[in-house]
Amino acid sequence: MSYLAVEDLSISFGGIRAVDDVSFDVEEGEVFAIIGPNGAGKTTLFNLVSGIYFPDAGSVRFAGRDITSLPAHRIAPLGLARTFQNIELFEHATVLQNLLIGRHVHRRSTALSHLLFLPAVRREELEHRRRVEDVIDLLELAHYREQRIANLPYGVRKVVEVGRALCLEPKLLLLDEPTSGLNPEESEDMGFWIEDINRDLGVTVVMVAHDMGLVSRVAGRVLALNEGRVIAEGSPADVQKNPAVVDAYLGAD
Amino acid sequence: MRFLFKTHYNQDIDHLKHGGDRFWYGLLLVLVAAAPAALGTFYLGELNLVMIYAIAGVGLMLLVGYTGQVSLGHAAFLAIGAYTHSLLLGAGLPFLLSIVAAVLVSALVGAGVGWIALRMTGIYLAIATLAFAMLTEQTISRAEWLTGGFRGLAVPQASLFGMPLTQGWQHYYVTLTLLVVTLLAALNILRSSTGRAMVAIRDSEISAESVGINLAVYKTLAFALSAGITGLAGALFAHRLGYLSPDAFTFLISLQLLLMVVVGGVGSMRGVIYGALFIGFLPQLLAIARDTLPPQIAQAPGLEPGIFGLILVLVILFEPQGIFGRWLKIKSYFQLFPLYRRATHRRQKTYLRTERLR
């Protein structure tokens, strides 16, 4: 049984089969990349896995559990975190608050005890803060800790979003285009962080990417999609040479 | 400019962050506690009203400013609190118990409204809450067997710890205490995971879901909290009015409450206080202005709601952060003098967001 098992997944929007009979398996501890031209259905696939959309057919199993019909807020506590291609941060909150919100699944106290802010709540808050500071250290965000997201440059927001996902202490991390819009230096940093997250924190990573350099460097296996269908799967080098993939990106002659 | 060296995470959690905070808030508390000695009956009554508005504003701010759910129907919760409190007082319940019951009943109704309104956002939610407020007003005026309808309902005399509450200063202290308690409770919520979940829902529902926040639960909770606190204000408001009738809780009151939150500064509890002061003393200003205006304008029907609406629009257009935002700007002007730049507080460009997923 693989860690994340996606089987015959399909969804249509109107007449368009955005994801069409897609199956793949991700093993625990690996970095798995999903590539494909624009509109191939990569983000839709992520939304299906993380419970934002529900599929018309097929199933998603995570750590031995069927999560196909679970809504997003019930998938997150199982240890699955994600980022968004276009950055979905809490704009009017600070970096620190954003990261603390990422700790939501680890809360133990009730709303009633929050009203009174009992000593147990304070202890819990301090514990959350320590965990958040670990993430801040890892991603070198200390400089931006108190700043509002709305005042941050794009590249930093991308990192904060990864940080927020890490605050869930996930077992599986879905990264939707972690390097899109970043300059070469920032992309390289992001590559190192993904390696660190995978190797040191032991988090399984599934990422959508356009940047083949990044994919070759960090990903063990690659899945190529086009028009909602799987067209190739294998090692980065193999997939890059696959004629169907070359066709999809460059068009048949 | 103050530089704060933090040595413990507790410093970020505490309400009062440093000695300056403790001094100024302490001074403020002493001043408001001493106010009855210095102020006449009329102004004490007005200050009492301002604090009642402030309590309702705290409730509405939690919903509008922190959870991002607009309500145009909070007069209904004010009414529910006021009527519940008066009826229970009349039935012989002690003052404090009756207040608690009023809060609980309002919170329960608020949870119901929030639950029904789950699928609605923005303008649709505003309309739904407006409809709820009208429904409540109608129900109160028709249920004559309970509320007396338009004949009205006399608010019974309350007594606290065996002491009848007859004097203005007694009501003033009751309101002041409850305002402080309410503010502390609201700030406690905001510094814990419940409050952060509310902020998350305000800023991005899809992300909130993805970090494990149950939207239905937290939206309903926010409505319940907000309604409960507004119900508390309603119970105090009942004593202020002395005589309840449905036309004391019209749309104009809902609009005033929203105006208070927006003018004060959305997303800050201090803004609530500024907004309450503004709303509380605006009618006095209008009354003074009326004397100097030509009678065609001064006697025109709908002058007050018109002016309220106009102020709401102007504030949203020119100072979306309200009085609190303006205060922050003035403060940083002096802190950074002469280096202040207007761009410091200008909203940065929002990058592309996935609207279709909301």
Write the SSE topology:
The complex is a heterodimer of chains A (253) and B (358).
Chain A: E1 4-13, E2 16-26, E3 31-35, H1 42-49, E4 57-62, E5 65-66, H2 72-75, E6 80-82, H3 95-101, H4 111-116, H5 119-138, H6 154-167, E7 172-176, H7 184-199, E8 204-208, H8 212-218, E9 221-226, E10 229-234, H9 236-241, H10 243-250
Parallel strand pairs in A: 3-8, 3-9, 6-7, 7-8
Antiparallel strand pairs in A: 1-2, 1-4, 4-5, 9-10
Chain B: H1 10-13, H2 19-38, H3 41-66, H4 74-90, H5 95-116, H6 122-142, H7 144-147, E1 153-154, E2 159-160, E3 163-164, H8 168-190, H9 193-203, H10 205-210, H11 215-241, E4 243-244, H12 251-264, H13 269-292, H14 295-298, H15 303-318, H16 322-336
Question: What is the typical, i.e. mean, pLDDT of chain A?
Answer: 92
| CATH-assigned fold name of the largest domain in chain A | Rossmann fold
Number of H/I helices of chain A? 10
Assigned CATH architecture of chain B: Orthogonal Bundle
Any idea of the CATH topology of chain B? Answer: ABC transporter involved in vitamin B12 uptake, BtuC
Strand content of chain B: under 5%
Instruction: Supply the number of structural domains of chain B.
Output: 1
- SSE order of chain A, as H and E? EEEHEEHEHHHHEHEHEEHH
Description:
The complex is a heterodimer of chains A (about 250) and B (about 350). Chain A is globular and about 65 Å long. Chain A has two domains: about 1-80 and about 170-255, P-loop containing nucleotide triphosphate hydrolases (Rossmann fold, 3-Layer(aba) Sandwich); about 90-170, P-loop containing nucleotide triphosphate hydrolases (Rossmann fold), CATH 3.40.50.300. With about 250 residues, chain A is α/β, with parallel strands linked by helices. In chain A, strand 9 (about 220-225) and strand 10 (about 230-235) form a beta hairpin. The longest helix of chain A has 20 residues, at about 120-140. In chain A, the strands form two sheets. A six-stranded mixed β-sheet of chain A has the order 6-7-8-3-9-10, sandwiched between helices. A four-stranded antiparallel β-sheet of chain A has the order 2-1-4-5, with helices on one face. Chain A has helices at about 40-50, 70-75, 95-100, 110-115, 120-140, 155-165, 185-200, 210-220, 235-240, 245-250; strands at about 5-15, 15-25, 30-35, 55-60, 65, 80, 170-175, 205-210, 220-225, 230-235. In chain A, helix 5 crosses helix 6. With about 350 residues, chain B is mostly helical. Chain B has one domain (about 20-290): ABC transporter involved in vitamin B12 uptake, BtuC (Orthogonal Bundle). Helix content of chain B is about 70%, strand content about 0%. Chain B has 16 helices and four strands. Chain B has helices at about 10-15, 20-40, 40-65, 75-90, 95-115, 120-140, 145, 170-190, 195-205, 205-210, 215-240, 250-265, 270-290, 295-300, 305-320, 320-335; strands spanning about 155, 160, 165, 245. In chain B, the strands form two sheets. In chain B, strands 1-4 form a two-stranded antiparallel ribbon. A two-stranded antiparallel sheet of chain B has the order 2-3. In chain B, helix 12 packs across helix 13 (about 270-290). The longest helix of chain B is centred in the middle third of the chain and has 27 residues, at about 215-240. The model of chain B is unreliable at about 350-358 (pLDDT under 50). The chains are: A alpha/beta (about 250), B mainly alpha (about 350).
